[in-house]
Amino acid sequence: MTTKIDITLSETKKEKPESGQLEFGRVFTDHMFVMDYSPTKGWHDARITPYEPISLNPSSMVFHYGQTVFEGLKAYRTEDDKVLLFRPEKNMQRLNLSNERLCIPQIDGDFVIEALKQLVAIDKDWIPTAEGTSLYIRPFIIPTEYYLGVAPSKFYRFMIILSPVGSYYKEGIHPVKIFVENQYVRAVAGGTGKAKTGGNYASSLKAQEEASKKGYSQVLWLDGVEKKYIEEVGSMNIFFKINGEVVTPELNGSILEGVTRNSILKMLSHWGMVVSERKLSMEEVYQAYKQGLLEEAFGTGTAAVISPIGEFYYNDEKITINDGETGEISKKLYDTLTGIQKGTHEDIFNWVTEVK
Amino acid sequence: MTTKIDITLSETKKEKPESGQLEFGRVFTDHMFVMDYSPTKGWHDARITPYEPISLNPSSMVFHYGQTVFEGLKAYRTEDDKVLLFRPEKNMQRLNLSNERLCIPQIDGDFVIEALKQLVAIDKDWIPTAEGTSLYIRPFIIPTEYYLGVAPSKFYRFMIILSPVGSYYKEGIHPVKIFVENQYVRAVAGGTGKAKTGGNYASSLKAQEEASKKGYSQVLWLDGVEKKYIEEVGSMNIFFKINGEVVTPELNGSILEGVTRNSILKMLSHWGMVVSERKLSMEEVYQAYKQGLLEEAFGTGTAAVISPIGEFYYNDEKITINDGETGEISKKLYDTLTGIQKGTHEDIFNWVTEVK
Ligand SMILES: Cc1ncc(COP(=O)(O)O)c(C=O)c1O
Ligand SMILES: Cc1ncc(COP(=O)(O)O)c(C=O)c1O
């Protein structure tokens, strides 16, 4: 295992975008972290270099067989100019879980967090300051062997790139509209649903495109076997408040375990609320709605933190929740979680790590 | 749509491997075909260039969301030194079907076949001559937009690379052993199973790895819903001969429609055999075996053409077929099909196209 990180600083600095004009994932900082894997050396040549193109032969496995994994987390700048990371160790655990499923060698999570901190520190000036902005961190692994056989690659490249991102909610937190998908399937038990791998996202594009033509911003996936049980939204886990109980689908092997989901479960329990992780059918949600018991629904993920859901489109019917307004729990979770991330709320769970 | 193909020949020629030492997919010829897609220009800048690395920013979508498709076909050299392609229009149709599922713009199949022929003609000296060898042709499309949002890429690159490949059967056609997978799932109805996209192969690696540790060369996938019905093998479709009837699983949306599968169905019908495409459970195969009615089993695909199956491992039991020997139909199909491909057998179905 490599422990030394070689640093080459960029001679030129790119112009930084205005805080107010930030989009998601279009602009990248001056540096990146890279390390390589080979069967004899393991992970080696850890280095921070200027952000620059990757050059690979067209036969490189990454262009053919989708054996990729990735993560997504954020660095936040506090009012007193500290830089905070939120539970990065959870992302590293999940990355190794994805690695396991995709036959990619395990990484040393502690070492990668150290590398990530050094990288963020070097590009600290890129972290935007405006309300709701942050630095999105994208660790990813690609197979680099030059070979067209269908087999795990023998060589890999691990990289971390950084992108300053704007507020998810330009005009404050507000509810989204979700299409309940009844034709396409994202993942199935025994597949790769619990891993963060490219193929899961590639397979979701078509449904997403069709939903957005109908005016829905994301799709809600149902299970691949019976198309009955709720799984998750495009890039968020999902929660419902039904008659006082907060419910989220249990981890069944085909949904991703969100770091936000995990944090919210802890917060809700801490607040003494009734929470359950269990099988939940769309029909149950629909019946609750009919009986006036569907109180709130929200998605959870690193990008939006909490995304209140104002409407579902399900079997040719519109299900409106809380009159299309942000619910009480959604709001409280959003304020508390973003407060912890931004250092304005007490970090009672010890979730935050400072980048020095 | 682009119609002109720009040609830049390589100044140096790489050394060609010995015919007898060819592996699959490790060595590539001197040239490649490339064209790019942008929303304003469509597919443009079609060109044949020296085989060389691709340079992409680390934020290029191909490294993150697996929105890739590919094809696989072969060029064969005949005894009188002609170069033949086998049903390339079927590969182009399938590529467009994959494109459709993956939200990638359609290509003009006729134009690509024309480009492919020019490329193969330029690198004609690379086509090996020994028995069973050929030139493997790999068309593929990658998303090239620099963006981390989960959405279809706006820019793409289409490429064709060529690799001289050895005989699949070094010591003549012989049966393989297959593990019937009962835990992992490759694809499910509503997913991407019928498309030739990276994610399908990435998700298969783990099962493949575990099967090969147990001494089985490939896995047989069952349907993702009930894990009961037979789908296909790693990179082959599958056929059984049961009590005189030749059966292959029907196209149900989760299996790939092989060009070889399609050709074999046509040949068998032409020979007047009883053939059906239908739902087929592993239990039915097992019962046929118990009753002594399981006469043959074989996989079909571009790589091996016909791969007779000598043994299945199913629910802790070994199912031996035809005493582990190549069956009569398997042998006849193999000889006829490779004969048509190599120009030694009459091309009664008009499947072969010459590269001039
Ligand atoms: C499919 C999917 N589900 C859920 C999530 C939420 O996970 P997290 O809370 O760790 O961002 C994400 C986003 O990362 C995702 O891509
Ligand atoms: C999953 C899968 N099924 C079947 C096949 C067989 O298709 P073809 O006969 O066109 O090679 C292949 C190989 O290309 C494949 O990858």
UniProtKB/TrEMBL annotation, chains A, B:
It is an enzyme of class 2 (transferase). Pathway: Amino-acid biosynthesis; L-valine biosynthesis; L-valine from pyruvate: step 4/4; Amino-acid biosynthesis; L-leucine biosynthesis; L-leucine from 3-methyl-2-oxobutanoate: step 4/4; Amino-acid biosynthesis; L-isoleucine biosynthesis; L-isoleucine from 2-oxobutanoate: step 4/4. Pfam families: Aminotran_4 (PF01063). GO terms for molecular function: L-isoleucine-2-oxoglutarate transaminase activity; L-leucine-2-oxoglutarate transaminase activity; L-valine-2-oxoglutarate transaminase activity. The modification N6-(pyridoxal phosphate)lysine is found at residue 196. PANTHER family: BRANCHED-CHAIN-AMINO-ACID AMINOTRANSFERASE, SUBGROUP IIII AMINOTRANSFERASE. Keywords: Amino-acid biosynthesis, Aminotransferase, Branched-chain amino acid biosynthesis, Pyridoxal phosphate, Transferase. It catalyses: L-leucine + 2-oxoglutarate = 4-methyl-2-oxopentanoate + L-glutamate; L-isoleucine + 2-oxoglutarate = (S)-3-methyl-2-oxopentanoate + L-glutamate; L-valine + 2-oxoglutarate = 3-methyl-2-oxobutanoate + L-glutamate. The keyword Amino-acid biosynthesis applies. This is Branched-chain-amino-acid aminotransferase. Its EC number is 2.6.1.42. SUPFAM superfamilies: D-aminoacid aminotransferase-like PLP-dependent enzymes. The keyword Ribosomal protein does not apply. The lineage of its organism: Bacteria, Bacillati, Bacillota, Bacilli, Bacillales. Belongs to the class-IV pyridoxal-phosphate-dependent aminotransferase family. Its cofactor is pyridoxal 5'-phosphate. One of its GO terms (biological process) is L-valine biosynthetic process.
